[in-house]
């Protein structure tokens, strides 16, 4: 075996398309909620690969699933199905409102499938006039041209030419604007039950109830994008389970594979029938290797003690952040559900969320941002309490460094 090529952060600038600006840190090893870089420095991981590493790094159940399936069968075309895909789909159906599952590779692909299904279903059942999609400002649904156009952040969708039509945006939680916009021409409403990239903003219960009722009134499908909130992130297997609203279509990805690329779109028998043979597809969707790992994630996460632990750990982190804020007065509030938590900058620190994220890395903590004004925390769902304590200690040091430098 030849020696591996020596690479550094400078290599990124030499060989990678410049659409990312990654940290100078290059992690090389992870275990649980700890990560080590090329120089051997240790970090506590409060980022979780952007809510992906729901069981931390190299969880034994996932390593076992990967190893065992890797010695059996990696890939088949969709001319054939496979056992891991059928088992995972069965478990998703058993655990949710859904009757049918479509597998893809990423959240964007699952959302693309959901939007195409909604349009196809409306066309077949109601006619060409029923094509409007309603979505929400600051929403995020992926980076394909369709999903980025439905997402409510122009910074991501502008600059690529004409956008797909019949897509309208309103402010999240604004029920009066929603009432004024929805009509019998609306085929679907797409929303996150808790906006992630948009700033960790929860849908108000009454807003959700009225959206559901108006969708029913106008024969529009309600699509929940649970790419970030799904697989236990909020303390429920899916966030809709903590509300009294059930969507018609749900998308899930990120944590579904615990770090291995997989996504799924879930829906009912009545709606699923519109995706007829050949109307949509994915080369790798339903890949046996991905599905075997997804099944292992389901088996670990969908347990009452794990989900209850998410809610308990939420309180630990929230209380810790509030204690830090009592000293340094940098946050307006701490919000979110489960282990999707946002610390919102106050007036004195507007636009400086990234400063806190960068300072945290210097102190040995990995965290995220959700826009310019929110520091985001999405750690492993099973992060040990001692790692939470150490991570908060390091974050406090980062806050102190930013405050002292101001």
Automatic annotation (TrEMBL):
Entry's Gene Ontology BP terms: L-arginine biosynthetic process
Binding annotation for pyridoxal 5'-phosphate: 107-108, 140, 225-228, 283
Entry's Gene Ontology molecular function annotations: identical protein binding; N2-acetyl-L-ornithine:2-oxoglutarate 5-aminotransferase activity; pyridoxal phosphate binding
One Pfam family it belongs to: Aminotran_3
Top-rank EC class of the record's enzyme: transferase
Annotated positions of the N6-(pyridoxal phosphate)lysine modification: 254
Annotated localization: Cytoplasm
Subunit structure: Homodimer.
Miscellaneous comment as given in the Swiss-Prot or TrEMBL entry: May also have succinyldiaminopimelate aminotransferase activity, thus carrying out the corresponding step in lysine biosynthesis.
Protein name as catalogued: Acetylornithine aminotransferase
Organism: Paraferrimonas haliotis
């Amino acid at each position: 075996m030849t020696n591996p090529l020596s690479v550094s952060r400078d290599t990124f600038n030499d060989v990678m398309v410049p659409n990312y600006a990654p940290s100078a840190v290059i992690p090389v090893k992870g275990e649980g909620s700890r990560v080590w870089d090329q120089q051997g420095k240790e970090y506590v991981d409060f980022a979780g690969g952007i809510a992906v590493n729901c069981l931390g790094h190299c969880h034994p159940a996932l390593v076992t699933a990967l190893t065992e399936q890797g010695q059996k069968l990696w890939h088949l075309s969709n001319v054939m199905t496979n056992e891991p895909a059928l088992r995972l789909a069965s478990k998703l159906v058993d655990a949710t409102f859904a009757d049918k599952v479509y597998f893809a590779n990423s959240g964007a692909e699952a959302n693309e499938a959901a939007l195409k299904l909604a349009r196809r279903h409306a066309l077949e059942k109601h006619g060409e006039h029923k094509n409007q999609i309603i979505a929400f400002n600051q929403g995020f649904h992926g980076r394909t041209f369709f999903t980025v156009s439905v997402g409510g952040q122009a910074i991501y969708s502008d600059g690529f030419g004409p956008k797909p039509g019949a897509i309208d945006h309103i402010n999240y939680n604004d029920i009066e604007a929603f009432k004024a916009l929805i009509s019998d021409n609306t085929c679907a409403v797409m929303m996150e039950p808790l906006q992630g990239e948009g700033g960790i903003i929860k849908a108000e219960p009454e807003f959700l109830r009225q959206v559901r009722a108006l969708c029913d009134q106008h024969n529009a499908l309600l699509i929940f994008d649970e790419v970030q909130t799904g697989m236990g992130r909020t303390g429920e297997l899916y966030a809709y389970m903590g509300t009294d609203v059930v969507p018609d279509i749900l998308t899930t990805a990120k944590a579904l594979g615990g770090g291995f690329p997989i996504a799924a779109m879930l829906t009912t028998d009545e709606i699923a029938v519109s995706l007829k043979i050949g109307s949509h597809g994915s080369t790798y969707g339903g890949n046996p290797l991905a599905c075997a790992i997804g099944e292992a994630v389901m088996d670990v996460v969908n347990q009452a003690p794990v989900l209850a632990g998410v809610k308990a750990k939420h309180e630990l982190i929230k209380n810790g952040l509030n204690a830090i804020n009592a000293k340094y007065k940098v946050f307006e509030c701490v919000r979110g559900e489960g282990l999707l938590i946002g610390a919102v900058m106050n007036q004195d620190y507007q636009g400086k969320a990234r400063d806190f994220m960068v300072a945290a890395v210097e102190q040995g903590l990995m965290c995220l941002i959700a826009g310019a004004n929110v520091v985001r925390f999405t750690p492993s769902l099973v992060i040990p309490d001692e790692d939470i304590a150490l991570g908060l200690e390091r974050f406090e040091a980062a806050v102190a460094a930013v405050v002292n430098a101001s």
